[in-house]
Design goal:
This protein is α+β, with helices and mostly antiparallel strands. The chain contains 14 helices and 10 strands.
């Protein structure tokens, strides 16, 4: 923990660097921090911050810039800023006026979040985890291949392919579907799968039990495959990073759904900020701000933005949380 004055000096340096993108001089720090000390004291404080690894000096005659450790300290000790009325009203009016099904709402929210934050935005929808299952249907595609159609109480539908070690008959498929719908009636995927696992020899023939267990296992994949993900504002990448190599790296990242989910911590709770090496991209100027939202019986999702470490964290954290709260209200959570 830094002494109060050095904490204030670091905050002033980070915020000035975020604003200008240029190394920050001791004079600029003195102008932007609320401490009544001499410029010599500020220079000494900056030297101490450099020795702690919080700032660095690109060139001998240049000012200083924050390091990933400096950003981390700043993020951990800053408070989200108050949004301008126009920004807050834009978010509120969006959620007051939108009446769409879940998928369309999530897609439109990614555009809103990018618009108000000025960063590429990601919205990850809830999976089937806590949603009650309305029904399971089996479609024989020929040979040993069966299509499993899972319908949730909200109307969401998932499809998974199952390849068996035998070719089921129509009678076996009908018997299995009846068995599955009894096991999954008004349960979650996990509860239904547990019920299927407990089916005994006297309750169903061997091939029907084997088919039911294979289908229950495939339906379990629905939790991850139904987590819809929408990206908004990818066109802003070129304006955020001057280095084209960084832009190309970010484009490659956004094309990898599973990696983006892990960056946002799809199953995390609350708000998080990950930057630099914390994202497993040690050599990339990169940060992620995200928060969870509760979709009621549909489960939980996550919203976030991606940008350079020189991100306006105080404003961005507030925006991400406001949008997450708006989604919760719209979904009746």
């Amino acid at each position: 923990m830094l002494v109060d004055r050095r904490s204030i000096v670091l905050q002033a340096l980070v915020e000035e660097y975020i604003r200008t993108g240029q190394p920050v001089s001791s004079r600029a720090v003195l102008q932007h921090c609320s401490v009544d000390v001499s410029s010599a004291t500020i220079r000494n404080d900056l030297a101490k911050l450099e020795s702690y690894g919080f700032v660095t000096q690109p060139h001998t005659s240049a000012g200083r810039v924050p390091t990933p450790a400096g950003y981390r300290y700043y993020v951990d000790h800053c408070s989200p800023t108050k949004l301008r009325n126009a920004t807050r009203e834009r978010i509120e009016s969006f959620f007051m006026g939108v009446h769409e099904e879940l998928s369309k709402l999530l897609k439109q929210t990614s555009g809103l979040l990018s618009e108000v934050s000025h960063y590429p935005a990601v919205v990850i929808g809830p999976g089937f985890g806590d949603e009650l299952i309305h029904g399971l249907h089996l479609v024989h595609l020929g040979g040993n291949t069966v299509l499993v159609v899972t319908v949730g109480a909200s109307g969401r539908v998932s499809q998974e392919l199952v390849r068996l070690r035998f070719a089921p008959t129509d009678r076996e498929l009908d018997a299995t579907e009846a068995l599955l719908n009894a096991a999954f009636a008004n349960t979650t995927l996990a509860e239904g799968a547990a019920a299927v696992g407990g089916i005994t020899d006297d309750q169903a023939p061997d091939r029907v039990r084997r088919l039911a267990r294979a289908v229950a296992g495939a339906a379990g994949n629905t939790e991850s495959t139904t987590r819809e993900m929408y990206v908004g504002g990818a066109s802003q990448l070129a304006s955020l990073w001057e280095d084209l190599a960084q832009v190309h790296t970010m484009l490659e990242i956004l094309e990898q759904d599973s990696y983006v989910r892990s960056l946002l911590g799809a199953d995390d709770e609350g708000t998080s900020v990950r930057l630099g090496a914390e994202t497993d991209l040690a050599d990339v100027d990169f940060a992620v701000v995200s928060t969870a939202f509760d979709a009621g019986s549909a489960g939980r999702g996550r919203v976030g933005v991606l940008g350079p470490m020189r991100m306006d964290y105080r404003r961005t954290i507030r925006i991400v949380e406001e949008v997450g709260d708006g989604l919760e209200d719209s979904l009746g959570a």
